[in-house]
């Protein structure tokens, strides 16, 4: 990078240190708590699936059953495993009996702890081995078929009908897409359960369900064989069911997941405690599954000015990087987000965009950065929009981005048609092919506008990170320091689903994941027993 922007490595190190302290502080808080979504995820990884007679998912049925009896603080694993051992049945059968009212988990005699723990470890190994097999299958297919070159061409389908999505996803792959993202139905992030089965009634997108994942994965594998390259599948494990959807994606071999607690806090008003706890477990699963996460910093620039708030994007990228590392997710799977959102009427706006993208590329050299297209300033003029997308594509290939979510000239008009998607892919392919090695040939003028802008953004990001380090992330979110959106630590959706872990808390999947990835095990005991600092004050 000697011929690139001159960014002070000591400043970058200071930013990482501050972000590390911010993330570690939150992680200590998280370590003594669980959520209903985490516990439902444990059930799913143990093989519990399906719905009761009223259509309620069995993981919800069992979790609510234990919550009503005051038994959830120690986790779902021990009561369910205990019943399975005592009755000689599977966790799935335990859930089915709870759903029919024929089994009360509080009334089952307790097995000894060693027996329950051993059974939990056995099921955790089986569940995680299944996820590992999917990761190996992905690697084999890529080795045999190959895949598109970075920046990956990323397109969306959003019909609301999974069977129509399959048709459009295959069409996109034939047109040249490398990643197909199935947009979720509007509002799914705010429902505290995962719908079941194949769905055809989504609004503005298709419900994320395990069956829908399976159908789309099967379709993209089929078209991958046809076009001779591996096609990656993306969905969303954000919202109130974040870790559950991460587990479902890992079990169905998804490749990319939008996974960012800060997005849910800021733009869906999900309680910050709830979603940050959920994020840790979801990223542990994604990391082990080899799934690339996408973070949501690009959305900050839809509510805040892209020029003035550029440093908040960088600061959040630093924080998200630290959160991911704490969950065992390596840089190669961190699709840290940013966006091409300067006003097209701004003089030298392209230079500012180039500075931001090159700065991110140098600071996070191993991350497959996810670059988002212009949306805020798209007007419905499709010809101007196509040019804006072309400039976006130019910045991406120049700065070697990892994932290119292609802009549509009909942005803000309607859900893209197949021909809109084709034109977007052709636009990117033309620019990427003709300018493939531009970044290797062009130097940035020392002290020039682009370099000064990057240095300015870095300095502001460091100052912001130091302030967040001093007051804590929760207080920073309450003050609206990210995206100009204020959120309360005790407000938002889902707070009632947060529980402090009991003295006998047991999550065999978290334990096994930490052992397999070399992460330290959580300490036992409550928040107060472990002497956490500053959270009540903050």
Brief synopsis:
The chain is an alpha/beta fold and 538 residues long. Helices cover 52% and strands 7% of the residues. The chain has 20 helices and eleven strands.
How does the SSE layout of this entry go?
Blueprint: H1 9-30, E1 33-35, H2 36-45, H3 58-68, H4 77-87, H5 91-100, H6 113-145, E2 152-157, H7 162-175, E3 179-182, H8 210-227, E4 232-236, H9 242-251, E5 256-258, H10 261-268, H11 272-289, E6 292-294, H12 300-303, H13 310-326, E7 334-335, E8 337-339, H14 349-363, E9 370-372, H15 382-399, E10 403-405, H16 418-434, H17 438-441, H18 449-471, H19 473-478, E11 498-500, H20 508-517
Parallel strand pairs: 2-3, 2-10, 3-4, 4-5, 5-6, 6-7, 8-9, 9-10
Antiparallel strand pairs: 1-11
Helix pairs in contact: 1-13, 1-18, 2-3, 2-9, 3-5, 4-5, 4-6, 6-20, 7-8, 7-16, 9-11, 10-11, 11-20, 13-18, 14-15, 14-18, 15-16
What characteristic shape results from the CA principal axes? globular
Our count of helices gives 20
Which CATH first-tier class of the domain at 237-453 would you pick?
A: Alpha Beta
Q: What is the helix fraction of residues, given as a range?
A: 40-55%
The parts where pLDDT drops under 50 for at least 5 residues are 525-538
The radius of gyration computed from the alpha-carbon positions, rounded to a whole number of angstroms, is 23 Å
> Major β-sheet, in short?
9 strands, parallel
Mean pLDDT: 94
Supply the helix-strand structural class.
alpha/beta
CATH-derived architecture of the domain at 237-453: Alpha-Beta Barrel
Strand order of the largest sheet: 7-6-5-4-3-2-10-9-8
CATH superfamily of the domain at 237-453: D-Lysine 5,6-aminomutase alpha subunit
Distance between the termini: 40 Å
Number-wise, the strands total: 11
If you consult CATH, what is the topology of the domain at 237-453?
Answer: TIM Barrel
Beta content: 5-15%
């Amino acid at each position: 990078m000697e011929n690139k922007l001159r960014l002070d490595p000591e400043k970058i190190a200071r930013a990482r240190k501050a972000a590390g302290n911010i993330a570690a502080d939150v992680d200590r808080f998280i370590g003594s708590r669980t959520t209903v979504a985490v516990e439902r995820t444990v059930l799913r990884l143990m093989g519990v699936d399906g719905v009761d007679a009223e259509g309620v998912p069995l993981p919800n049925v069992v979790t609510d059953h234990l919550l009503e009896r005051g038994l959830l603080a120690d986790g779902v694993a021990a009561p369910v495993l205990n019943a399975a051992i005592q009755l000689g049945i599977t966790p799935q059968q335990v859930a089915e009996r709870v759903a029919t009212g024929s089994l009360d988990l509080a009334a089952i005699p307790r097995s000894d702890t060693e027996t329950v723990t051993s059974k939990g470890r056995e099921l955790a190994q089986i569940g995680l081995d299944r996820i590992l097999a999917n990761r190996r299958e992905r690697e084999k297919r890529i080795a045999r078929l190959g895949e598109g070159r970075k920046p990956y061409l990323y397109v969306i389908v959003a019909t609301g009908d999974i069977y129509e999505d399959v048709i459009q996803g295959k069409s996109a792959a034939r047109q040249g897409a490398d990643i197909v993202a199935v947009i979720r139905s509007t509002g799914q992030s705010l429902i505290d359960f995962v719908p079941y089965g194949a769905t055809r009634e989504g609004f503005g997108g298709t419900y994320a369900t395990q069956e829908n994942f399976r159908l789309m994965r099967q379709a993209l594998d089929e078209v991958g064989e046809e076009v001779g390259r591996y096609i990656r599948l993306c969905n969303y494990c954000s919202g109130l069911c974040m870790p559950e959807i991460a587990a479902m994606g890992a079990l169905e071999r998804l490749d990319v997941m939008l996974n960012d607690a800060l997005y849910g806090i800021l733009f869906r008003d999900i309680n910050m405690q709830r979603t940050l706890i959920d994020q840790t477990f979801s990223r542990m699963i994604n990391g082990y599954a080899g799934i690339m996460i996408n973070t949501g910093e690009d959305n900050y620039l839809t509510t805040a000015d892209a020029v003035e708030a550029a440093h908040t994007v960088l600061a959040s990228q630093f924080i998200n990087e630290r959160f991911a590392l704490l969950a065992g997710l390596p840089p190669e799977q961190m699709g840290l987000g940013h966006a091409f959102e300067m006003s097209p009427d701004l003089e030298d706006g392209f230079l500012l965009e180039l500075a931001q993208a090159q700065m991110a590329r140098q600071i996070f050299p191993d991350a497959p950065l996810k670059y988002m297209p212009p949306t805020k300033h798209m007007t419905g003029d499709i010809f101007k929009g196509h040019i804006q997308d072309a400039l976006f594509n130019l910045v991406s290939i120049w700065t070697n981005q990892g994932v290119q979510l292609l802009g549509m000239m009909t942005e803000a008009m309607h859900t893209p048609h197949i021909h809109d998607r084709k034109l977007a892919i052709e636009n990117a392919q033309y620019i990427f092919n003709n300018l493939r090695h531009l970044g290797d040939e062009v130097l940035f003028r020392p002290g020039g506008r682009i370099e000064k802008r990057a240095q300015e953004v870095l300095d502001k990001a460091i100052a912001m990170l130091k302030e967040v380090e001093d007051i804590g992330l929760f207080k920073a979110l309450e003050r609206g320091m990210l995206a100009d959106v204020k959120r309360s630590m005790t407000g938002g959706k889902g707070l009632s689903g947060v529980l402090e872990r009991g003295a006998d808390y047991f999550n065999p999947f978290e334990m096994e994941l930490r052992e397999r990835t070399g992460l330290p095990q959580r300490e036992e005991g409550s928040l107060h027993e472990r002497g956490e600092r500053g959270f009540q004050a903050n």
